[in-house]
Amino acid sequence: MSNTKTILAALAVAGATLGAGTAAAQALADAKIAVVDVDRVMSQCTACVAANTQLQQQRTALQQFAQQQGQPLQTEQSSLEAALKAAAGKPDAALQQRVQAFQTKAQGAQRQVSEREQTFQRNVQFVQQQIAQRMVPVVQQIAQQRGASAAIAKESLLFSAASVDITDAVLTTLNQQLPSVSTTAPPPPQQPAQQPTQPATPGR
Fold first, then answer.
1. Alpha helices, DSSP H only, in the chain?
2. Which of 57, 82, 87, 151 could hold 143 in an S-S bridge, CB 3.0 to 4.6 Å?
3. Burial of 127 (0-12, 13-18, 19+ CB in 10 A)
4. Alpha-carbon distances, residue 45 vs 14, 36, 134, 142, 170 (angstroms)
């Protein structure tokens, strides 16, 4: 489930806003940097663990549904291929109808699997969004309490001292403020129906 790019982008905003309100012309002060292990937070926070478990269950259900749709189609495809081979390239009307019916059924199954896959991906993104929205202010709060003027994800660093790592504090506070998240994203907005175009009136 963890997609750290989403969280890293949010944390980049947090780092930029920790010092908000300082006059633009003022000389820069010596920066103190706080470091957060985003991957660890995303894998260990209470809400993250529960959401990952539920998302894995959703993924398993999606895979099972795809298999249920695909196995009968594979059997029917093999039967049709044998029938077409026996017809020597000259299928009768009944066989042609079978082929058309199979194509329609296969397209319908593919559409159903694709719709469920899109729903699952929306759920994953929704979980990440909820965690990021809560994590960023937590990072800001703790970094400021520790006197830091910026917060950086550990994944973006080559080296950082353990003394600047605030991951434990972020985890503790995040668990208190975000015990759980929803793994069901709201449905996408409905696209407005297109109005039929009126035929142009021929000129007189």
1. 4-17, 38-44, 46-86, 93-145, 167-177
2. 151
3. buried
4. 19, 13, 12, 16, 9
**Measuring CA to CA, which residue among 173, 123, 177 is closest to residue 3?**
123
Give the chain's largest Cα–Cα span. Answer: 85
The tokens describing 204, both together, are 């007189």
pLDDT (tens digit, 9 = 90+) per residue, 117-173? 999 999 999 999 999 999 999 999 999 999 999 999 998 888 888 889 999 999 999
C-alpha distances in angstroms, 113 versus 63, 74, 109, 186, 189? 9, 15, 6, 19, 20
Buried (b) or exposed (e) across 19-31, using 16+ Cβ within 10 A? eeeeeeeeeeeee
Cross-strand bridge partners of residue 182: none
Q: How far apart are CA 103 and CA 200, in angstroms?
A: 38
Q: Residues of 34-56 as b/e, b for ≥16 C-beta within 10 angstroms?
A: bbbbbebbbeebebbeebbebbe
